[in-house]
Amino acid sequence: MFPWAPALVALLALVAVYLSFPGLFRQRRPQEPPLDKGFIPWLGHTLAFRKNMLEFLKRMRAKHGEVFTLQLGGQYVTYVMDPLSFGSILRESRKKLDFREYAQELVLKVFGYQPTEKNNQMIHTASARYLMGDGLEELNGALLESLSLVLLGPGGSRPDNQGWQEDGLFHFCYNIVFKAGFLSLFGSTKDKEQALLQAEEMFVHFRRFDLLFPRFVYSLLRPQEWLDVNRLQQLFHRMLSVEDKEGVSVWLNYMLQQLREEGRTQAMQDKFNFMMLWASQGNTGPTSFWALLFLLKHPWALQEVRREAKEVLGEPRLEENQCFTFKFSALKQTPVLDSVMEETLRLGATPTLLRVVQEDYTLTMSNGRQYLIRRGDKIALFPYLSVHMDPDIHPEPDRFKYDRFLNPNGSRKVDFYKQGRKIHHYSMPWGFGINICPGRFFALSEMKLFILLMVTYFDLELIDANIAVPPLDPERWGFGTSQPTYDVPFRYRLKPLQ
Ligand code: HEM
Ligand SMILES: *[C@@H]1O[C@H](CO)[C@@H](O)[C@H](O)[C@H]1NC(C)=O
């Protein structure tokens, strides 16, 4: 009766698809970067991307050059691979390129936390006050105490903790640094034995969550794992409450106070705690692992770090029932260890840095070429590939060179070049611009303190000196510090008591 009905239905269906997936029929416009939508509608390249982001981005760069737009799960993401062109993106105002929209979605999904307009500013203010400069010195004292507690036990050193002990180096570093960081920032019960047990329990839960995290973010969990993640979230909310604890850091207290003044509920504060636990503990342990592993694999570097430590700290020995002592001014006099840390972060830190384009945007490259980027798209940097592993900036980029960030006269090296031009962002482990990691100074002094204690008070050995440095886990590209694909057995013992 209505021969045109099927055609009309088909047309309406097409319109409906178009309206619900507005990006589906997108075509490259003049002056836009190469557009690669992949073969699967909407999903685009998602599968290859999630399987191994690094290898996938290498292929895309080989195919398209330094700028390209990818379709990933209905979103369009423009990757900029030329670090000489980062400058204009880094300087761009928040009105044009913002990160909050993306961060908010993520934080809501992962932590259940609903940020308000003021939150970001509040976190950065608190961190500038209490995680840097003078505020940091107070925290360093708390850290030393926690590291002592975690490494030696509540009573300080005992003759019976002097024998060799074996552990996986990754497990050991993550466990110790997590517990010490957790106790210093989130406080502890009065009873120190109990505090240790609670910190250990927290670590076990944290690692479960940590292992599920990448696939959780990508919504790839199996039903059982979903339940597990939900259970863990509830548990963190409950366990992190700072009531009845002592020694809660001023950093955390200040932020919780602000949240209370904003009238946020107790439940929201618990979720905020969880978010801060994640931000503060997810990267320092793994980074400390890589640093110690590189030192153990490069005996000359270890010797240099020990020589430097001896110069500024002497050769400390513990007496019975004593805790570690440490001269904090030493943290400012260790250029060799500083270079080791920068080199470790160059090799191990693999974050993706994202901005959401707020209004149609013209990207100007260092060679003057201009690209149009559409409103609502994302701009992504992956500095591990485009900066850290660039052989022009860092010759033999795969190799650990402990003195890569040292000048011949022993000062910190800051001059790096690409195509003969000085480059300002020669390493970007902390992100960039207004949301650069606000905990970076604290993180560095925490990791340095841990490593200095380990190399001055302990003997350390790999069980198998020839073991290869494990590859980075391909599941974690884009998420902070990488983790190894396998653990590395080692042993340690406290040097003889005096
Ligand atoms: C090796 C250790 C660490 C690394 C590699 C690291 C790296 C990063 C990176 C890449 C970001 C995100 C930047 C972006 O999204 O563009 C970030 C954010 C953040 N980090 Fe760190 N971080 C470390 C340790 C810490 C520590 C110890 C703390 C706190 C005590 C901390 C607190 C934070 C916070 C609160 C944010 C969110 C900032 C915001 O919302 O703007 N981080 N970190
Ligand atoms: C050390 O060398 C670097 C460059 O090689 C130079 O910029 C710096 O001024 C020197 N510092 C001292 C104290 O001589």
Describe this structure in words.
This protein is an alpha+beta fold. It has 2 domains: 5-113 and 353-381, Uridine Diphospho-n-acetylenolpyruvylglucosamine Reductase, domain 2 (2-Layer Sandwich), CATH 3.30.43.20; 119-347 and 434-474, Cytochrome P450 (Cytochrome p450). Helix content is 48%, strand content 11%. The protein has 17 helices and 15 strands. It has helices at residues 5-20, 46-51, 53-64, 86-91, 100-111, 119-130, 133-152, 169-186, 192-217, 223-239, 250-261, 266-281, 284-297, 299-313, 335-348, 383-388, 440-457, and strands at residues 35-36, 67-72, 75-80, 97-98, 165-168, 187-188, 246-248, 353-357, 361-364, 370-373, 378-381, 417-418, 421-422, 458-462, 489-494. The chain has a 6-stranded mixed β-sheet. The chain has a 3-stranded antiparallel β-sheet with strand order 5-15-14. It has a two-stranded antiparallel sheet with strand order 9-10. The longest helix is centred in the middle third of the chain and has 26 residues, at 192-217. Residues 120, 123, 131, 279-280, 283-284, 287, 349, 351, 353, 429-431, 435, 437-439, 442-443, 480-481 line the site of protoporphyrin IX containing FE. One of its GO terms (cellular component) is endoplasmic reticulum membrane. Belongs to the cytochrome P450 family. Its main location: endoplasmic reticulum. This is 7-alpha-hydroxycholest-4-en-3-one 12-alpha-hydroxylase. It holds the Pfam family p450.
